[in-house]
Amino acid sequence: MENHKEHENKKIDHSKMDHSKMDMTQEEHAKMDHSKMDHGSVPMGSVGHDHHKMMIADFKKRFWLVIVLTIPILIISPMIQDLVGYNFLLPGNSYILFALSTIVYFYGGWPFLKGFFGEIKKGVPGMMTLIAMAISVAYFYSSATVFGLKGVDFFWELATLIAIMLLGHWIEMKSVLGASKALQLLVSMMPAEAHKVNGDKIEDISLDKLLKDDVILIKPGEKVPADGIITEGTSYLNESMLTGESKPVKKEVANKVIGGSVNGNSTIKVKVEHTGKDSYLNKVIKMVEEAQKTKSKMQNLSDRAAKWLTYIALAIGFGTLATWLLLGFPFVFALERMVTVMVIACPHALGLAIPLVVAISTAVSAQNGLLIRNRTAFEESRKISAILFDKTGTLTKGDFGVTRIESVDKNYNSDEVLRLSSALEQSSEHPIAVGIIKKVKENNIVIPKLEKFSAITGKGVEAIVEGKNVKVVSPGYLRENNISIPEDAYSDAAETVVFILIDSKLIGFIALADEIRPESAEAIRIFKKNNIKVLMATGDNEKTAKAVSDKLGLDGYYAEVLPHQKVEIIKELQSKGDFVAMTGDGVNDAPALAQANVGIAVGSGTDVAAETADIILVNSNPQDIANLILFGKATYRKMIQNLLWATAYNVVTIPLAAGVLYSSGFVLGPAVGAVFMSLSTVIVAINAQLLKKQINKG
């Protein structure tokens, strides 16, 4: 009997889940501020979302005003007139240029100046520092030439530089916004109101007034407003946005429903179990947000690279200025080289490379039934070389049906064996217990009351029933207590057998069969294609374990394994150099999940807070675990691609900006440098967005 345990032990304690709020800075607007989200109300998450939209609108407004002012600046700029070959000088031409450029600098450049002060205040100079220094040097030097300093202004380059920077940020931020849409879709899934049942009356109330144990009516086609249990009616619910399960799921009386799922074509009544912060959807959203905030090794690497690039750019920028001056070139030329270096070296693409991929992968994975709690483990899932499966409910459906009931004591017939065992199983949600209770109902047997219920860790359950000590246990318990197992207990079929004891004497056994999931074979094919060993550890008997292993073509199996023994199996695999993933239910398998390199809690349903798991699969489908590994690989590839692009771009363009090809007649101006910088950032953003297609193809 596999991990047969008390219902209370099966439930996962949400209260222990660490949802400590992290201070999330909005670095260069690339990372969305969800810290102010209200997790107890319907519009949760809309604050950060709307704030991001407002920022995009602000950049758009600044960009268009700067464009309007840049056109006359270009027209009346003496340098442009010399280049194009026309003469159009207005009275006080230089003062008009100064006035227009001042508006461009302070209004158009304000986001960059504000960002610069923020970075300096924190002592972390970055992209905003480089942009602010570049536009400030250009503005103040050009202004000085208007008021007496000998030299040539480049107001036109300042204006075009700011215009291109604003355009690049506007485009990039629209792309960043797309990364949050999957999360926003989850946020928007809850309806605004619920139909509360008050006797014979139906009252429409807002969700914040909905309480635990309220009964609500859900009409055909409506969204379920809260987690609960159906008390009346049968319907098919679409849970695809929550679990990744594409087919509508049949729900009837006593079945659980998840808030945010969509009701089918029948009206149902639901007793509310979880609302607001305690609801499944809110936990998913919070988990996604925290995963997006958490920095993995890859992100820390890109952050360090961006920081050092800033220092290098500042050093190269001032070094370029000094070098060209020492070579005898005009100050204006040397200054232009320095400004171009600082603009083109802005580490925005590098700083954006990882956060965007993180935001997209976590949000879209959640839509596919993969909840990421540990970013590093998710990214390292690409390294998995061996995976250890729990059998019941993962490789198999977990839908047990009773195939045989045998008595070995003449004082108890098969119905008595079933009746007494059902007393212990009525409070458990374990698949074996569900199978036994289903058989009891089919036979119209009245379940007796029990007292002093307790679990025998990993081996079964016991209680007092009608004054007798009744145990329902695994074969391992019989062996430990030197109780002989009947010769006919096991058939050749892949059956799971539990034994019933009264006052420590064996009175009979019940055999149940659990059908192998049709998706298991395809999942194992994918694992093997990716050179991953597939092993199974089960509390089930040797015959059943071997039958499942042979049918699926596993690389090995461990039968009659207790939860603590799974840790030893994982340690043994790790000692041989394997990078091990463990799949379990997150409770009894907690030590094994913690020991594994990647711990995957499966079949958690609405219990999404599996404490020791790195990743939680809403469904128990092994295909999802295969998808997880493919998702992890796709995510890692995108991170590497973005980092390589951002790094290679700077390696190539910084020397060009400094003027290494000047002798060949090639000079890169600040405005062209700004185009390259913005283009690099947009390319990184678009490449990250392509991850959605790869994930959805899964």
TrEMBL record:
<dbReference type="InterPro" id="IPR036412">
    <property type="entry name" value="HAD-like_sf"/>
</dbReference>
<feature type="transmembrane region" description="Helical">
    <location>
        <begin position="92"/>
        <end position="112"/>
    </location>
</feature>
<feature type="transmembrane region" description="Helical">
    <location>
        <begin position="308"/>
        <end position="333"/>
    </location>
</feature>
<feature type="domain" description="P-type ATPase A">
    <location>
        <begin position="189"/>
        <end position="289"/>
    </location>
</feature>
<dbReference type="GO" id="GO:0005524">
    <property type="term" value="F:ATP binding"/>
</dbReference>
<dbReference type="InterPro" id="IPR027256">
    <property type="entry name" value="P-typ_ATPase_IB"/>
</dbReference>
<feature type="transmembrane region" description="Helical">
    <location>
        <begin position="154"/>
        <end position="171"/>
    </location>
</feature>
<dbReference type="InterPro" id="IPR008250">
    <property type="entry name" value="ATPase_P-typ_transduc_dom_A_sf"/>
</dbReference>
<feature type="transmembrane region" description="Helical">
    <location>
        <begin position="63"/>
        <end position="80"/>
    </location>
</feature>
<dbReference type="GO" id="GO:0012505">
    <property type="term" value="C:endomembrane system"/>
</dbReference>
<dbReference type="InterPro" id="IPR059000">
    <property type="entry name" value="ATPase_P-type_domA"/>
</dbReference>
<dbReference type="Pfam" id="PF00702">
    <property type="entry name" value="Hydrolase"/>
</dbReference>
<keyword id="KW-0472">Membrane</keyword>
<feature type="region of interest" description="Disordered">
    <location>
        <begin position="1"/>
        <end position="20"/>
    </location>
</feature>
<keyword id="KW-0378">Hydrolase</keyword>
<dbReference type="GO" id="GO:0016887">
    <property type="term" value="F:ATP hydrolysis activity"/>
</dbReference>
<dbReference type="InterPro" id="IPR023214">
    <property type="entry name" value="HAD_sf"/>
</dbReference>
<keyword id="KW-1133">Transmembrane helix</keyword>
<dbReference type="GO" id="GO:0055070">
    <property type="term" value="P:copper ion homeostasis"/>
</dbReference>
<keyword id="KW-1278">Translocase</keyword>
<keyword id="KW-0812">Transmembrane</keyword>
<dbReference type="InterPro" id="IPR023299">
    <property type="entry name" value="ATPase_P-typ_cyto_dom_N"/>
</dbReference>
<keyword id="KW-0067">ATP-binding</keyword>
<feature type="transmembrane region" description="Helical">
    <location>
        <begin position="643"/>
        <end position="662"/>
    </location>
</feature>
<feature type="transmembrane region" description="Helical">
    <location>
        <begin position="124"/>
        <end position="142"/>
    </location>
</feature>
<dbReference type="InterPro" id="IPR044492">
    <property type="entry name" value="P_typ_ATPase_HD_dom"/>
</dbReference>
<dbReference type="Pfam" id="PF00122">
    <property type="entry name" value="E1-E2_ATPase"/>
</dbReference>
<dbReference type="InterPro" id="IPR023298">
    <property type="entry name" value="ATPase_P-typ_TM_dom_sf"/>
</dbReference>
<comment type="similarity">
    <text>Belongs to the cation transport ATPase (P-type) (TC 3.A.3) family. Type IB subfamily.</text>
</comment>
<protein>
    <submittedName>
        <fullName>Lead, cadmium, zinc and mercury transporting ATPase</fullName>
        <ecNumber>3.6.3.3</ecNumber>
        <ecNumber>3.6.3.4</ecNumber>
        <ecNumber>3.6.3.5</ecNumber>
    </submittedName>
</protein>
<keyword id="KW-0479">Metal-binding</keyword>
<dbReference type="GO" id="GO:0005886">
    <property type="term" value="C:plasma membrane"/>
</dbReference>
<dbReference type="InterPro" id="IPR001757">
    <property type="entry name" value="P_typ_ATPase"/>
</dbReference>
<dbReference type="GO" id="GO:0043682">
    <property type="term" value="F:P-type divalent copper transporter activity"/>
</dbReference>
<feature type="transmembrane region" description="Helical">
    <location>
        <begin position="339"/>
        <end position="366"/>
    </location>
</feature>
<feature type="transmembrane region" description="Helical">
    <location>
        <begin position="668"/>
        <end position="688"/>
    </location>
</feature>
<keyword id="KW-0547">Nucleotide-binding</keyword>
<dbReference type="GO" id="GO:0005507">
    <property type="term" value="F:copper ion binding"/>
</dbReference>
<keyword id="KW-1003">Cell membrane</keyword>
<dbReference type="InterPro" id="IPR018303">
    <property type="entry name" value="ATPase_P-typ_P_site"/>
</dbReference>
